[in-house]
Amino acid sequence: MKNLLTIVGERIRFFRKNRGLTQEQLGEKVELPQSYIGGIERGEKNISLETLERIVDALKIEPSDVLTSGKKRNTKDEILIDKILLNLQGRSPIEIEIIHNLIADVLKAFDNRNNTK
């Protein structure tokens, strides 16, 4: 099993790239040099909880998102799901409910189509 520094670094890299940020841009957001961000992503830097908090805030994720492991990560599905979650951020509960209902309707249509084949 990979060590925790490597897992955290890989997850930070995943979310940074999925948000279209360079290491330099993330570094500017959290007031750290690009080289330090690179060290974090490579699992070379033992970061403080304060630094982790600044990074997850800048990436708009939960701390638990960088601690998950055990299944294959960075898959196409995970990238798309993360992008959907990004699109939902800042939406009102009513808008989220409407989007949920639209998704449920689309999935029902897919299921019905697949059942008739």
From TrEMBL:
Record key words, sorted: DNA-binding
PROSITE patterns found in the cross-reference section: HTH_CROC1 (PS50943)
Pfam families noted in UniProt: HTH_3
The HTH cro/C1-type domain, residue ranges: 12-66
CDD domains recorded: HTH_XRE
Assigned GO CC terms: cytosol
Record GO terms (molecular function): DNA binding; DNA-binding transcription factor activity
Annotated InterPro entries: Cro/C1-type_HTH (IPR001387), Lambda_DNA-bd_dom_sf (IPR010982), TransReg_Diox_bact_type (IPR050807)
Protein name (record): Transcriptional regulator
Organism: Paenibacillus rigui
